[in-house]
Specification:
This protein is α/β, with parallel strands linked by helices. It has 2 domains: 2-196 and 389-407, Glycogen Phosphorylase B (Rossmann fold), CATH 3.40.50.2000; 205-388, Glycogen Phosphorylase B (Rossmann fold). It has 16 helices and 14 strands. Helix 12 (318-325) links the parallel strand 12 (300-303) and strand 13. It is globular and about 65 Å long.
Length: 409
């Protein structure tokens, strides 16, 4: 079976942290006997053609000079479009180039199924290409593509993508609800399929201890961890404010911030204004293979996401699952798809979005030793293994894809 994946983000080179979950999914499909080819936008410095872990990758150029290919990557297309108005002029060129390359691959490589990731522009592009060539199209919705970009035109393009798919996969219940609302009465079947994660690697306990010692400036410090894109909707501001409240109350702790984003300097200013510079460390992105060491070395992971100004919410929150797999207690917000994974008193703790006081109180509670906390952490670990490992996600995808393809929709 041949599967063509069309995506706007894909690791550009070795150790690149750009959407590793798309590559992990593609690699797992290869390991399960599928021939996989990926179409993604090019980025200066990346190869236009290569094979990584058995996955064939084709990166198409869409702008000259190559350094001007700035719509995708480096924080994501949504952020890049808002940051630089010139990128909005480049977007139609990118979409047209993607359509031409997708048509070429369908006609020449002849995949059995085309799998688009994100409804815009890939879902629309793949749906149109497959409609023209009478090919099978499976649309994978990650969330950001349905919560944002909701002008009348974009909603029509999303509806077209949904209605011209053999199957639509969604990563959470909230993503499913919003996606179905875009195409009322659609006959396209839906499958709730979370983004898969890799199994927990074997971790060196000595390395975990050494990392914790390195992160601490005081051996009595408790370590709070945030991992994710540094943007307002991720709740970085609330994590910083909660840390300040806890420090003011006399607790000895430190906030470790892993990630990058367009608003990083704004959050550094918040830290400065609160006078807690010496208690907050911004580490940038960490290699994927090392992130689990940070989860294991810290006392609690916080992901207090909230609704963004453009309506976007956390569709799933992959880092919550990774933290659970590393047996790190997780605190999320009662927002978006987080509630599918973070279940109060079972797999973690929830706070109200945008409420730093509530977050501070919950962190304080979780940092205290208790039998209940130990039970929740162990239960969360089992929950993540059962529902989120990429091998099982790929199996479910293939089984359903083959069933729907054989039905001939």
């Amino acid at each position: 079976m041949k599967l063509l994946i069309v995506t706007s983000n894909y690791p550009r080179w070795e150790r690149d942290t750009t959407t590793p979950f798309v590559h992990n999914f593609a690699r797992e499909l290869v390991q399960q006997g599928i021939q996989v080819r990926v179409i993604a936008p090019h980025f200066v410095g990346a190869k236009t053609k290569e094979v990584v872990d058995g996955v064939e990758i084709r990166r198409f150029r869409y702008w000259l000079p190559l350094s001007g290919q700035s719509v995708c990557y480096q924080g994501g297309a949504l952020g890049n479009l808002s940051k630089n108005p010139l990128n909005k002029l480049k977007l139609p060129v990118l979409v047209f180039s993607e359509l031409m390359v997708t048509l070429k691959e369908i006609l020449c490589w002849k995949p059995d199924v085309v799998n688009s990731h994100w409804l815009l522009p890939q879902g629309f592009v793949a749906a149109l290409a497959c409609k023209l060539t009478r090919s099978k199209h499976v649309a994978t919705v990650h969330g950001g593509d349905v919560f944002a970009l909701n002008s009348p035109l974009f909603r029509k393009l999303k509806k077209f993508a949904i209605n011209n798919s053999t199957l639509v996969t969604v990563n959470s219940s909230v993503t499913e609800k919003v996606t179905k609302a875009l195409a009322p009465g659609t006959q396209t079947p839906f499958l709730k399929l979370p983004t898969g994660i890799l199994p927990l690697p074997v971790l060196d306990k000595t390395k975990i201890t050494d990392l914790r010692t390195h992160l601490q400036k005081d051996s009595n410090e408790k370590l709070i961890l945030f991992v994710g894109r540094l943007s307002e909707e991720k709740g970085v501001r609330e994590a910083i404010q909660a840390t300040a409240k806890l420090i003011d109350s006399g607790l000895t702790l430190r906030l470790i911030v892993i990630g990058e984003g367009h608003e990083k300097e704004d959050f550094k200013k918040v830290v400065c204004d609160l006078g807690i510079n010496e208690y907050v460390d911004f580490l940038g992105w960490i290699e994927n293979k090392d992130v689990y060491y940070y989860f294991s070395a810290c006392d609690v992971f916080v992901g207090p996401s909230k609704t963004a100004a453009n309506g976007q919410v956390e569709a799933q929150g992959l880092t919550f699952i990774e933290a659970m797999l590393a047996k790190c207690p997780v605190i999320g917000s009662n927002s978006g798809g987080i509630i599918d994974a973070v279940i109060p008193d079972k797999t973690g703790w929830l706070v109200e979005p945008g409420d730093a006081k509530d977050l501070a109180a919950k962190i304080n509670s979780v940092l205290m030793p208790s039998v209940q906390k130990d039970y929740i952490v162990e239960n969360a670990y089992q929950f993540s293994i059962t529902n989120y490992l990429v091998a099982e996600v790929a199996k479910k995808f293939l089984l359903r894809t083959m069933l729907d393809s054989s039905a001939g929709k």
